[in-house]
Amino acid sequence: MLYTLTDLQNLTVHASDGDIGQTKDFYFDDKHWVIRYLVVETGSWLLSKKILLSPISIKAFNQEHKTLTVTISREQVKNSPDIDSEKPVSRQHEVDHMEYYGYSHYWGNTGIWGREPSPNMMAPGYYSVAPKPDNLDNPEMSADVEAALSRDNDHHLRSSDAVTGYHLDAIDGELGHLQGMLIDIDTWAIRYLIINTSNWWLGHLVLIAPKWIKEVSWPTSKIYVDMTQQQVKDAPTYDSSVPFNIEHEQSLQTHYGRNDE
């Protein structure tokens, strides 16, 4: 099932030894279009410190009660690496975070979560037989970390709060602005961007698949889309009051599949 970013904000995070805080923002990868971290504000118990929460640690999501259950503890959170929520997450910070919690690195492979199809399969102890060695005993993984650090200037993690409101340019004109995203929480992949077309087509929301995004320009606060205005106008509209279901998915796949040909 797909959820909007709004659905996933202000969730209470249940750790193994008590509540951690609430989800406030999301860092996403604009190369693979996946949520890499949730930003959690810890509240008074930890002086409202903001921490990164990897989807690797998420065990369960309860939409009715607006909760996330995670495998980490409050004690771990206390000593977790600090972040500056006003700046992009660097690769060095990711390395520190992943190594602190004992997670494998997702980069260096073709999949969005390394060798695995979903983040929870990267959790320590997921496999009861032949667990993955850590990078201290794996020279190949250590080399991968070094290579990743050397490419730090080409990193692609940004805040969803920061990008919301960016204007989109089609091949032949403006499309509107980014209003939100639809997330598949099995993989935490961003399946669709929710576009408000009020700039030129009043009163409509449309969904655009990330494969149509040509570039996210942080200096100009714009998203460039490899589509025409007419292609967007022909796409099924999105009604935020109606739950996104399989019929919507099939309709979008038919539309975008046709445009692929």
TrEMBL record:
Matches recorded under InterPro entries: Bac_photo_RC_H_C, PRC-brl_dom, PRC_barrel-like_sf
Gene3D superfamilies: Photosynthetic Reaction Center, subunit H, domain 2 (3.90.50.10)
SUPFAM superfamilies in UniProt: PRC-barrel domain
This protein's GO CC annotations: plasma membrane light-harvesting complex
Gene Ontology BP terms: photosynthesis, light reaction
Pfam families: PRC (PF05239)
Protein name per Swiss-Prot or TrEMBL: PRC-barrel domain containing protein
Taxonomy of the source species: Bacteria, Pseudomonadati, Pseudomonadota, Gammaproteobacteria, Alteromonadales
